Amino acid sequence: MAVFGDRLPLARRFAEHLCTSGVERGLIGPREAPRVWERHVLNCAVVASLLPDGARLVDVGSGAGLPGIPLALARPDSHIVLVEPLARRVDWLREVIADLGVAVDVERGRAEDDVVRRRWEGADVVTARAVAPLDRLAGWCLPLLRPGGRMLAIKGASAADEVERNIGAIRRLGGGVPWIERCGAGMIDPPSTVVVVERETIRPVPSRRRRGQA
């Protein structure tokens, strides 16, 4: 398949991990297993068409490595880190990445954590899939981007309505006017719907208050 090139066997192996240990360890539901290739793996991989060459990419709330691992397989020129707060998911991600032999980093944490921001800020692209509404995503993802970098939020059929509801919050957080891209037409049906937000300005982002502080 063109999107993966000679890495197609690795993509199929990743799909096997999702269908077996991914289900056994609760990363995806058992009902998703029969449709994991098109609904999950390809749905994410086709977004590779939106990545610049040699992109530094942070995948926020990576969960089962979606979309980060399919993007790493489709675009080996990219430098990708998966950010995930849950230890059991982080363990699974590291096991799968080691088995696939791909150069992907895994960071246990949340996008809004100071340590994550310090370590991974200045990214070209931040991705998120099935993580949160756009206003919250913008608050988490835009600070990780360089000016001119882009947040790519993989959404469903209601993406246009969500953009309309959240455009004001996105603009206040330093994002540009969101737009929608459809990826993978002719390869998957329906194509993947991606909300794109470019970081326009640098805004001061308050540090998270430590427990016990006023």
Commentary on this structure:
With 214 residues, the protein is of the alpha/beta class. It has a seven-stranded mixed β-sheet, sandwiched between helices. The protein is 36% helix and 21% strand. The chain is built from seven helices and seven strands, in the order H-H-E-H-E-H-E-H-E-H-E-H-E-E. The model is unreliable at 204-214 (pLDDT under 50). It has helices spanning 8-24, 36-45, 68-74, 87-100, 114-120, 134-141, 159-172, and strands at 56-60, 79-84, 104-108, 123-129, 145-155, 179-183, 192-198.
Write the layout of secondary structure elements.
Layout: H1 8-24, H2 36-45, E1 56-60, H3 68-74, E2 79-84, H4 87-100, E3 104-108, H5 114-120, E4 123-129, H6 134-141, E5 145-155, H7 159-172, E6 179-183, E7 192-198
Parallel strand pairs: 1-2, 1-4, 2-3, 4-5
Antiparallel strand pairs: 5-7, 6-7
Which word captures the global form?
globular
Topology as a string of helices (H) and strands (E): HHEHEHEHEHEHEE
Mean pLDDT: 92
Give the number of DSSP strands.
7
Cα Rg: 17 Å
- In DSSP terms (H or I, runs of 4 or more residues), the helix count works out at 7
Helix content: 25-40%
What percentage of the residues does DSSP assign to strands (E)? 15-25%
